[in-house]
What does this fold into?
Amino acid sequence: MNIFRLVGDLSHLLAILLLLWKIWKTRSCAGVSGKSQIMFGLVYITRYLDLFTNFISIYNTTMKAIFIAVAIATIYLIYFKFKATYDSNHDTFRMEFLIVPVGGLAFLVNHDFTALEILWTFSIYLESVAILPQLFMISKTGEAETITSHYLFALGSYRALYIVNWVYRYYFEGFFDLIAIVAGCVQTILYCDFFYLYVTKVMHGKKLSLPA
Amino acid sequence: ADLIESHDEL
It folds into this structure.
């Protein structure tokens, strides 16, 4: 465990707790893409199946359990408890356009052709694009609430910190996981445009809105 | 390869 990975994990945790807290506090999930949240739920569940087969550390097990629980709670709030506030008209990204190709790719490009490994690979690939419905929704409505922007910033920071972590691990531990690295870089690139808007607008106290 | 198979990252 190095500092980049720890701060990355904490940033990830902060992001998902922030989103859950915002929905709970405002009693509304307006502006939040339920489809991105369903895909993140799928990401955690398919990746953390090793909770049952492989013990790494208390930290690792606890974080995995929290991620799965928070993802399920968020999906529950969006699709059940605060369903009336869910902005489905603007959440029109087709999940199958991501899930089907990502599933196919996981079958073709993986470390080992076993069920658990293919599901792990699927989750890595899916995570890299799971935010697209959320970004698509923001581009459709032309704006995002400030807390939603903070959520995206924390989530993007987690990905960027993981890249630094991989550079560190490559040099100091000889660790190298090409699948995770390529998918992680793709994922981080998707946030670049958002990072730019966040720094130029939200950090200066303005709401995130896109130029018309 | 062992390191990769253990997937110790989150």
